[in-house]
Design brief:
Elements: E1 6-11, E2 14-19, E3 23-29, E4 32-34, H1 38-48, H2 51-74
Antiparallel strand pairs: 1-2, 2-3, 3-4
């Protein structure tokens, strides 16, 4: 499974990340992720535009990562 965290927005100035395995996470510091409460999750999802919007954001991140990897693989390597 994909363990990457993708920045999807902010909740009261706290960055909000989404992971396919962990779900919504708040980041209060460097790599210090905490799970939001149920009320916070509902507020975050509502503010961002619903789970469809979150899924679209994550799919766009994943598509961009694949395109970047493909572009980097096609570059000639100097040895």
């Amino acid at each position: 499974m994909n363990n990457k965290y993708h920045l999807i927005g902010a909740y009261q100035t706290i960055p909000v990340y989404f992971s396919r395995t962990e779900g919504l996470l708040l980041c209060s510091g460097t790599e210090d992720f905490t799970e939001p409460t149920d009320l916070q999750k509902k507020m975050i999802i509502s503010e961002i535009g619903g789970m469809i919007t979150i899924d679209r954001l994550v799919r766009n991140y994943e598509r961009t990562e694949r395109l970047e990897a493909k572009k980097n693989d096609s570059k000639p390597r100097l040895t």
